[in-house]
Amino acid sequence: MIHSFLLIGQSNMAGRGDLGDVERIGNPALKVLRNGRWQRMFQPVNPDRPFSGVNLAESFADAYQKDHGVEVGLIPCADGGTRIDQWREGSLLFDHAVFQAKLAERTSNIAGVLWHQGESDCEASLTEGYLDKLTAFYEALVRALNLGDVPFLAGGLGEFLENREEIRPYWRQVDRQIEAFADAHPMVGYVSAKGLPGRPDNLHFNAPALRTFGLRYYEAFKALEKKDKIFIEKPREDDALRTALDSL
């Protein structure tokens, strides 16, 4: 059975790394959901815009596949420039992600969620309530897809945002709230973006950074993996029989 991962958030999850700046990952066991069917992984993985590019989920999926020896499927639902309000329960983006995940569940087990979002909420009127909105979104997604025992990985914001005048006063506030959100939920992992370089726009990670970021996401995943319901072994029949006999 394919192990699948839901990709949600804004442009740094969709991927804006320049194609050709890093070697393409040619692992044939990596898949992308397209029209409800699994296709061999292509680029861009998450074509939300004509300029979509390298995605951090590529290196994440490659590392996961090599460790687990299973086919890995990516469910691309990220959308560039979106605020946390646009991901609230009942919104178009929320419902689309849930629908795509449920399609994927027909032929796969959802093993995790990869989330990166927050740059669009780096404004004076939006930062203060970000944590509450992110928490509400997460809890709604867990309910909708029964993901209570599935790792949810939340990426930190890039330090290069400090170079954007309109974002500089707010990005650290949002980043701290993402980390606080992860600390408050046992199945959520915070993935640091410390030291990762950006593109010249100082808004998006470049392609090499996304390769590294994907591996960081995988390291965070491994810390939560032992709690994932997919990996909890069912007792063998003889163990179950022995337990039943011992109770007599």
Low-confidence stretches: 233-248
Roughly how many Å is the radius of gyration?
19 Å
Helical run tally = 7
| Structural class estimated from helices and strands | alpha/beta
Number of beta-strand segments? 7
Between the first and last Cα atoms, what is the distance in angstroms? 37 Å
Give an overview of the whole structure.
It is a single chain. This protein is of the alpha/beta class. The protein has one domain: 3-Layer(aba) Sandwich (Rossmann fold), CATH 3.40.50.1110. It contains seven helices and seven strands. The protein has a seven-stranded mixed beta sheet with strand order 3-2-4-1-5-6-7, sandwiched between helices. Strand 6 (152-155), helix 5 and strand 7 (188-191) form a beta-alpha-beta unit. The longest helix has 19 residues, at 207-225. The radius of gyration is 19 Å and the shape is globular. The N and C termini lie far apart (37 Å). Mean pLDDT is 93; it is low at 233-248.
